[in-house]
Design a protein that fits this description.
Blueprint lengths: L1 H13 L2 H42 L5 E4 L19 E5 L2 E3 L2 H4 L13 H17 L4 H6 L2 H4 L6 H32 L8 H30 L4 H30 L5 H18 L4 H8 L6 H51 L4 H13 L2 H29 L5 E3 L2 E4 L2 E4 L3 E3 L20 H31 L5
Antiparallel strand pairs: 1-2, 2-3, 4-7, 5-6
Helix pairs in contact: 1-7, 2-4, 2-7, 4-7, 4-8, 4-9, 4-13, 7-8, 8-9, 8-13, 8-15, 9-12, 10-12, 11-12, 13-15
Length: 480
């Protein structure tokens, strides 16, 4: 008898004009979002090639910029890619973000793109609530619930049939939108997919089914907590607001409170403080020379020798101060980036109370867009940094005589000493044929699936949880 309930639920939805219109709008949005994403991928590819060419010309023995490849899965989940740094700066012993850009472009994306995860996560979830909020309470109001759950239809059959009916009403519209979107992708010459990529798309679709299923079950649960459909609708909308808006944004707020990041102004003050300490160590004074050339007990040759010794001492102390300054700068930047990464991670964890956030995180993990893409890019840059460090140190040692020494200079009574504020290897011409190349990277599903496994497990847990809650609540529901 479940079939009777399934058919009844499907027919009720199909004959509902508002359901049909909203489902068709969602299909159109899926198609529109995919088309826009394809266009963005083409633009990003051109920008990538341009930046790659510039970075190739600018690479040197002090640093090299590595450019992040555009992600061709932004149609499934953009994840704030446009607000994430498009390159990293690799130095000996350190991988740096363009922090100056990060101050203007926050990591955590609040505005969503019209990608698959947005359309399914926000719009389909709302439709799922609208077709299930009155599944039980609506029948109760019409006085038909007592008849439906009487023999031969049990409460179990009614609940399970209603769940399947609602799900089977929604899934076909989702599939139509996704299939048309995939056809658009197939006919685009700028994007090519291999077998591994199609497996990722398959998993995205399956995860979308799981998410819609969880939304249907939450809608059914709200239908069992009240005897009036209007009350169930209000509860459903409140839950949707929490799932779609309050919890995700609350996760960001929690991360900012628990793991605050210094403002960019504070960061600059800290950098200037380290710089001030450095320059205090390399300050030169004419008194240094005066103490030598005013001595009457020394010949001119001895004075010159003393000045040479002073110069060697200044070089030695300045080089040591310069190394300490570099380490201080790296430490400040590392601490800033560590706090930034901790805040992002905490925001992701805090938002896991929302099935929508979990759904988006799971897709992000599978296709490696957004923060997941940035993290992958950074880890590969760290591996490259080790190779670059060995190469840069070796070449700097070989070309040290060509390095440009910059620093203060004092001339007094024909005597001269100079300090070192920086040793530049940037403008040295050398054979770059042996320069380490940044590796290509393309993670397979075997690499990405384990990363997304926790979020997939949580999404399945939400389905089980709300099915049990709905079942238990309906067993004690007064059908009279």
């Amino acid at each position: 008898m479940k079939g009777l309930i399934i058919n009844k639920t499907i027919l009720n939805n199909i004959y509902d004009f508002k359901f049909l219109i909203s489902s068709l709008i969602v299909i159109l949005l899926l198609i529109l979002g995919t088309s826009m994403s394809i266009s963005n991928i083409s633009l990003q590819s051109k920008e990538y090639n341009r930046f790659q060419s510039l970075a190739e010309n600018e690479k040197n023995l002090e640093n090299v910029k590595v450019i992040k490849r555009p992600n061709k899965f932004i149609f499934a989940h953009e994840g704030g890619e446009r607000n994430l740094p498009q390159y990293l700066i690799v130095l000996p012993y350190f991988v740096d973000y363009p922090i100056e850009d990060l101050s203007l472009k926050p990591f955590i994306e609040n505005l969503q793109n019209l990608d698959w995860s947005f359309v399914v996560g926000y719009l389909f979830s709302l439709i799922a609530f609208l077709v299930t909020y009155d599944l039980v309470s609506g029948e109760k109001e019409k006085g038909t619930l007592r008849l439906l759950v009487s023999q031969p239809i049990s409460k179990d059959s009614f609940l399970f049939g209603g769940f399947l009916g609602a799900l089977l009403s929604l899934i076909p519209f989702l599939l139509i939108g996704l299939i048309i979107s995939i056809i658009i992708i197939l006919f685009n010459a700028n994007i090519s997919f291999d077998e591994n990529d199609w497996i990722k798309i398959f998993f995205v679709i399956i995860l979308s089914f799981f998410f819609i299923s969880s939304m249907v079950l939450i809608g059914i649960f709200t239908s069992t907590v009240s005897t009036k459909s209007s009350t169930s609708l209000i509860i459903s909308l409140i839950i949707w607001v929490f799932i779609a808006i309050i919890i995700p944004n609350g996760g960001v707020l929690v991360s900012e409170i628990i793991s605050p990041i210094p403002s960019f102004k504070e960061f600059e003050i800290e950098l200037r403080g380290a710089e001030k300490i450095f320059y205090s160590k390399i300050t030169l004074s004419s008194i240094m020379l005066r103490e030598i050339y005013t001595r009457r007990d020394l010949s001119n040759a001895e004075k010159r020798n003393k000045v040479d010794q002073l110069q060697k001492k200044i070089y030695r102390e300045n080089r040591q101060a310069l190394e300490e300054y570099k380490q201080d700068i790296l430490k400040i930047r590392k601490n800033y980036l560590k706090k930034l990464e901790n805040q992002m991670r905490l925001a992701k964890i805090s938002s896991k109370l929302s099935p929508l956030s979990v759904y988006m995180n799971s897709i992000e993990g599978i296709v490696r867009t957004g923060y997941a893409h940035q993290l992958t890019f950074f880890r590969i840059a760290e591996q490259y940094m080790r190779e670059y460090t060995i190469y840069a140190n070796k070449m700097q040692e070989e070309l040290k005589d060509k390095a440009k020494i910059m620093g203060p200079k004092i001339v007094d009574e024909g005597y001269e000493v100079e300090g070192i504020s920086w040793i530049s290897y940037k403008d040295i011409n050398f054979d770059k044929s042996s320069f380490p190349k940044f590796p290509e990277y393309n993670l397979t599903i075997s690499n990405t699936f384990p990363i997304a496994l926790i979020d997939i497990g949580i999404l399945i847990f939400f389905n089980i949880l709300f099915f049990v809650l709905s079942y238990v609540k309906f067993l004690s529901y007064d059908v009279r």
